Each structure stands twice: as structure tokens, then as C-alpha cells.
Amino acid sequence: MAYQSFVGLDSSLPIEKWPQPGLELMWQIPDPPICKKEVDCDVLKYSRCLIDPKNVGKKRCFCKSGHYWDAQGYCQKCRHGTACKIRRNKAPLIAVAVISVLLMLLGGFLVHRRYLIKRRTIRLLVKEREEILSANTSGKSAKVFSGKEIKKSTNNFAKENLLGTGGFGEVFKGTLDDGTIVAVKRAKPGNAKGTLQVLNEVRILCQVNHRGLVRLLGCCVELELPLLIYEYVPNGTLFEHLHVFRLRERPPLTWLRRLVIAQQTADGLAYLHSSAVPPIYHRDVKSSNILLDDKLDAKVSDFGLSRLVELSESENTHINTSAQGTLGYLDPEYYLNLQLTDRSDVYSFGVVLLELLTSKKAIDFNRDEENVNLVVYMKRIMDGEKLMDVIDPFIKDGASKVELETIKAVGNLASACLDERRQNRPSMKEVSDELEYVIGIVSGQASKS
Fold it and tell me: Are residues 251 and 360 in the same domain?
């Protein structure tokens, strides 16, 4: 570019002393030629067809590494002492950096949002569970444990602390900070029904206090799954003592101990039916829900399916509800008519009496097809007056004449509990009194000998 100007002008001088105008030249380096393909740059030696950083939609013939673009429009080789800075296209790097930052911000936002949603959901769950626990509760309130405390006591629910599993969920052994050993029950993940059963069990156990019922210590509702914390009963279940003792090298239960376990269980159920306010129907009486402590005394457990009888229902002879329970123990009349009464528990207890007498399982597919169900099998046996043929040899062999008579008496009591018509079944209070009477006879016989 050419300009006419006063070269070396000193503007402080008068005009008449200004020099004559001259010609001043200013050079502007031209842009590299435009290209579309690499072949277009063959006319410009030492160049390549690259994207123009000033205009991303265009390509130009830029000098290769070690060369620079001069004012005459050629790619000259860099020489020592010559300014030859390699210009690189920084647009892709800038774009990658910007996108990375945006992705990091978006990821952080999503993580924080998820945390807030989870926290809000947990708060709502805790509130909902607390409302369920407080609904229609006239008894004592359960102690609320923190999730941190329970996780610590069970070593974060470690597998080695797992005591057992069932349809409802899992039970873990735990040790509180004060050294108290506890059993911690939780529903299985994703099992909404199990969650409701755990909450229901807390409500039930807050209403009761009896030596024949497992004692509730408290609950925890702030974790994803609600937890039930109750006393640790160390000697397993009646089911294990009757059917698995050989595997665990436990001595079989004596006849007197079986009678005591039966009477303690019956007494606990009688308390639920007659003394608890409002009355409670257990709905899942079975040998695996009868726990034995260090003295082999019985404690009824697992009230997840239990039902409080509201005041409005207490005047009726039954409650209409869906049939729930365990195969082999379920009252057939309750199953058919969906009418729950205290006599439904009596029927289930009758099955437990048969287990105590025979050490046979309520349902056993290793038996002949027609004998899989213990009740069906035993009714056929008793109709043929062959009860003594199926009594557990451990309690029959070496038994005195009086003890054999008491075995028959308990067999008849079991038969009465299992009557198909519920109105013909005895109450749990009557069953408990009958067993207590039989225990008196056996104990008296033992003291004489």
C-alpha cells in the first residue's frame, strides 16, 4: 500500500518550514491462497491444505513446519536468527477444553441433583414410615436407632453376621456399643411387601409385653430399608431342634421340654388373643417362628403378618382379609372363606404339636405323595388308632406308662386344634391350660422316679 505524506514531519514547525511531501510505502502480508484439496497446494512449495482458524469454513495453503509465510507470498525456510514461530491451529484444542468444562459442570450438576433427590426421598420415606408406626398405636413407642449405629453393630450387614433369611428378608446378629447382642431384621432390597411387614411388626410388638413373645428393642427407619431390632435369642428355632439337630450336633429335645415349649408358645398366643388390647392374630404360627433361648424356653417371633383387631372389628366373629401364612400350617377354613379368627392360630399351633410329637416336617416332599402334608398324614394315622407308630422314637422309647398316656393326650389335643370346623376348636387359653395340666403330670412322675 502507498501513501503520500510528509516524511519526518515535525508538526511544531511553521507550515512554511515543512518538508516537501514524499512517498511512503507500507506492506501488508497477503493471506495464503484458498484450497479445497491437498493437490491445490502443489503450486505453493512447502505448504499443506489446512482449516483456516480465522474462518473455519475455509481451507488455505499454510506453510509446513520449519517454514514461514513471507510478504512476497512464498513459504521460506526458517534460518537461524530469523523469527519463525510455528503457528498451530488452536481452535480444536479450545473447543475440546470448552466441551470438557461443560461436561464436568453438567456431571457435577446431575450428581448434586441426584443427591438432593435421594436425600429428599429418604426424608419422605422416613416421614411415611414414622406415620405408619404411629397410626393406631396406643402402646409404647419403639426406640429409634440411627442407621450409623446399626451399621456399626452388624459390621455393615456382613455376611458372617447373617443369622437367617426368609420370605420377608434377612436377620443379622449385631452388637451395640454397650455390648448388648441384638438381632436385626430388614426387608430384602426391592421387597415393598417385606418393608410393610417389618413396619407392621414394630407396631404389633409395641402393643405387647409377655415373656413368651420376642422382645422388641427398637427400630431404624432412616436407611433405605427399615430395620427391626429385637433381643437376640441364641438357641435357634424349634424347627432346627426338631428337624436339623442331627446336622448341628444338638441333642434331641426331651418330652418334658417339648411340653414346656408347647405350653409357653400357647401361653404367648393366648395373651395375644385375650389380653392384648386390641387383640392380635399372629397368622404365621409355625415351628420356625418359635425361638429358643439359652434355657430352651420358647419365644414367639415374626409378627410381620400379624393383624391388630380394631375395636370396630372386635364385635364380629371374624375378619375378612386375604389369606396369608405358610403352606402346611394354614387354616383351610381361613384359606377358603378368607375369614380370619383366633382359631386360625389354633389350627397352626395344632400342626406344631404334631411336629413336637413326631419330629416330622409340616410339608415334606420326601414322604409319599399322599403323605406330603403332615396334617393329612396324621389324620389317617389317628383314624386308624396308630398314633404311637409315628411318635418320635427318642421320646417314646423308654417312656413310662404315664408318659405314654400324656403323649396320647397331646395327640388328642392336636387333633382338636386341627378340627376342620373352627367353632369346634379350643381357644389358645384352653390349650395352654391343658398343656400346663399335662406338664404337672409328667413333672410329678419325674420327681417320683
Answer: yes
Q: 243 and 226 share a domain?
A: no
Report pTM. Answer: 0.68
Most confident of 14-23, 268-277, 417-426: 417-426
Mark the binding-site residues, compressed into ranges.
Answer: 185
The kind and range of the H/E element at 154 are none
Radius of gyration over every alpha carbon of the chain, rounded to an integer in angstroms: 44
Based on the fold, state whether residues 216 and 250 are members of the same structural domain.
no
Indicate whether 379 and 253 sit together in one domain: yes
| Active site members | 284
Asked whether the beta carbons of 237 and 292 are under 8 A apart, the reply is: yes
Q: What angle do CA 152, 157, 160 make, to 5 degrees?
A: 110
Choose the final residue of a domain: 89, 119, 148: 89
What are the grid coordinates assigned to 298, written together? 420358647
Question: The CATH number of the domain where 131 resides is what?
Answer: 3.30.200.20
DSSP string, 211-275: TTBPPEEEEE-SSSS-EEEEE--TT-BHHHHHHSTTTTTPPPPPHHHHHHHHHHHHHHHHIIIII
pLDDT digits (tens, 9 = 90+) for 71-123: 777 888 887 655 565 555 566 677 778 888 888 888 888 887 777 766 665 56
Strands (E), 16-66: 22-25, 34-35, 47-52, 55-63
